[in-house]
Amino acid sequence: MVEVVTVGLDIAKSVFQVHGVDAGGEVALRRQLRRARVLPFFAKLPACLIGIEACATAHYWARELGALGHQVKLIPPSYVKPYVKRQKNDAADAEAICEAVTRPTMRFVEVKSPEQQSVMVLHRVRLTLMRQRIQLSNTIRGHMAEFGLVAPIGREGLQKLIRLVEERDPRVPDEARVCLEFLVAQLQLVNLQILETDRRIRTSARSTEVGRRLMSIPGVGPLLASALVATVADPKAFKFGRNLAAWIGLVPKQNSSGGKDRLGGITKQGDRYLRQLLVVGALAVVRYVERHGTRRPWLVQLQTKRPTKVATVALANKIARIAWAIMTSGESYREPEPAAA
User: Fold this and answer.
1) Each residue of 272-301: pLDDT tens digit?
2) DSSP secondary structure string, 272-326?
3) Cβ neighbours for 140, distance < 8 A, ≥ 6 positions apart
């Protein structure tokens, strides 16, 4: 049998497609596997290079196949797409992955540990709970408005409406009040669950030495520090801090040609959640600077030349670079020295 040296594995929920080639690049293996047969199949296969798209469950399969002695590399799906020939199907995807994983300039995704994925589960669950809280709040407001009961925007206004429900205000019919009590009970439960996830995220950020150092950066709190540690599996995989900022999507989009540089808005590629947290943290710093000033003259000059949102994104980019430097160097954050007069 011809020895397989490179395998492209297209993963799914139940059906997996395998495409393997030999040292000469000739097709040596095409096979469809059920989920239960994946690990036994690769356990019998000699150690080889396996490429997988970095999608749902990819990190789990990368760890499992790596434990069998194979070299596993995860590829962003957008980098695999150019290698798909004509029609898209599982076999074509597996072949494209097999081709892409051998490219010398291909960029790969670092495999996350179960601990890192567990922290990200905390963040994703918190996001879901926050959406549910907004949905429940808006639902209560909408139903109460049907009976002429409205309140100002904000938590205090919502609490006024909830008190009307709890005090059995006569303007709310009994049938509607019972349903609103269901919603209030759900909202209270969601609020408690959000507090618990916040507590666990704070504990996660403070439990690691790198997390504590990250929280010393202005604009980086427990939420962002925990997300950085969990999302960036290996910060040294990025050669420069700008590479991390580009991976998050905080660098200008290029459309240059003929020696002319054309830069647009940020690319917004990469991890949307991490980018959102960085921008929110940067906005907090910008608002503080507007009220109290700063020792960062570049930020003050930028605010005089550019709109607040542009300055905020520029600062988010800078925070990402500082975070990379702290994560790779092992040093703590140091405030910039004031310029000499």
Assistant:
1) 999 999 999 999 999 888 887 766 777 878
2) HHHHHHHHHHHHHHHHHHHHH--S-HHHHHHHHHS-HHHHHHHHHHHHHHHHHHH
3) 158, 161, 162, 165, 180, 183, 184, 187
β-pair partners for 53: 75
Judge contact between 316 and 278, C-beta under 8 A.
Answer: yes
From 113, 323, 121, 319, select the one nearest 210 (Cα to Cα): 323
Cβ atoms within 10 Å, residue 93: 23
Each residue of 214-263: pLDDT tens digit? 999 999 999 999 999 999 989 999 999 999 999 999 999 988 888 888 88
The number of angstroms, rounded, from the C-alpha of 141 to the middle of its chain's C-alpha atoms is 32
Tokens 């500082």 belong to: 322
Q: Fill in the amino acid letter for 339.
A: A
Cα–Cα dist 36/68, whole Å? 16
**Whether pLDDT at 340 is above 60:** no
At 71, give phi and psi (nearest 5°).
-95, 115
Q: Describe the strand order of the beta sheet including 49-53 as a list of residue ranges.
A: 27-34, 15-21, 6-10, 49-53, 71-75
- Pick from 109, 104, 86, 85: nearest CA to 96: 85
- Which position has the token pair 């962002």? 224
The whole-model pTM stands at 0.87
268 Rama class: left (phi>0) / alpha (psi -120 to 50) / beta: left
**308's tokens:** 């607040």
Q: Measured between alpha carbons, how far is 232 from 247 in angstroms, rounded to an integer?
A: 10
- Dmax over CA atoms of the chain, in Å, equals 82
